[in-house]
Amino acid sequence: MTTDWKEVEKKYYMQVVRRQPIVIVRGEGTRVWDDAGKEYLDFTGGWAVVNVGHANPVVAEAIAKQAKALLQTSNQFYTIPQLELARILVDNSCMDRIFIANSGAEANEGMIKLARKYGITKKNGAHEIITMDHSFHGRTLVTMAASGKPLDSFLPAPMGFKVVEYNNLDAIKRATTEKTAAVMMEPVQGEGGVNVPSKEYMKAVRKWCTDNGMLLIFDEVQSGIGRLGTLFGYQAFDVEPDAMSLAKGLGGGAPIGAFLTKEFCNVLAPGDHGSTFGGNPLASAAAYAAVKYAIDNNVPANAVKMGERLRAGLGKLKTKHSFIKEVRGVGLLNAVEFNIEISAATLTAANGLGLLLNAPRPNIVRWMPPLTVNAAEVDKAVGLFEKAIVEGAKTATAKK
Ligand code: PLP
């Protein structure tokens, strides 16, 4: 049987994702290794997931211990890891209650249900949710509709979303009617290319929602758990949402999601929501260990420091290379935007040099390393990136 895993994927897996030609077999901290033993600096952070580092020993130990004790029962019973996780997240946030799910999309589905039920039961049947263009909330039908993604091949499309321009209060005002239940947004848009809204906008949206009896709900799937340099993304903007979703960094690498709410909009009742695996002991034990590690070791503060260092390094490259249009980001969610479409060629060159990056757009490269990254790793990555963009620009120009 072949062990050419790229061929196995081509033959057996649904061809829905474009992969880089690397088979990753091991990770530690900021580094990963492929099946040929080659080492890479992972500035994709497992898609902004391994915030406390690949194979974090505290998370690994918690998983091993829990696996030997209890993998699964059901939400028909109480389990301790689920409740430890619930308590640490509620006690450290502005929220009062939590529901634990299995992924970001699923957490958002639950949060959307909460917002709709709030509008329907407390705001005269209001059910519409205003969402943002270039947002990304997941791959289920409802979260795709919320993201404003074309659903032509998957009709009929779920209704009830009005997609407006991000970072534009007037657009929200114009879309608001008596039918509006909530405004939903990412504190910083990740998949959309790392779009950072202004603090004034965020505060004004908060006020608009409060004044009009609408919920403000944050998708913190990518920006939560330290990514923006604060434990939760809302803290980076001094604005409290009424509900928020989490996933990605929550499990330290284990698949898990959650949504949290304030008490006044805690409208979901028995039978309204549920999950077989949601809050499962294994995923919860991993997440509790990851969140506790992030808090105990002040991991968000490292994201602030390393984020500044990264943007300073990338900023220097911008002064040298005119094809870099902008360097932007908050904490360790950052992007370099080019004037030309060289992301794909840059990623290929970076792979060869031992640096993993992500390209959400043909002209944008995103940086989302583990938040435990150190200064030497940041500096090395910036150095390799410069070589990669020079190579990438050459390849892209040659192709024209
Ligand atoms: N929301 C945001 C902001 C995301 O970045 C993502 C994934 O990239 C999701 C939701 C979907 O999460 P998942 O892939 O775990 O369903």
CA radius of gyration: 21 Å
Low-confidence stretches: none
Bound molecules: pyridoxal-5'-phosphate
Structural class: alpha/beta
So, CATH architecture of the largest domain? 3-Layer(aba) Sandwich
**How widely separated are the two ends?**
41 Å
Q: What do the pLDDT scores average to? A: 97
In the CATH hierarchy, the third-tier topology of the largest domain is known as: Aspartate Aminotransferase, domain 2
Shape from CA axes? Answer: globular
CATH class of the largest domain: Alpha Beta
State the order of secondary-structure elements, H for helix, E for strand: HEEEHHHEHEHEHEHEEEHHEEHEEEH
Number of domains: 2
- In DSSP terms (H or I, runs of 4 or more residues), the helix count works out at 12
Helical content stands at 25-40%
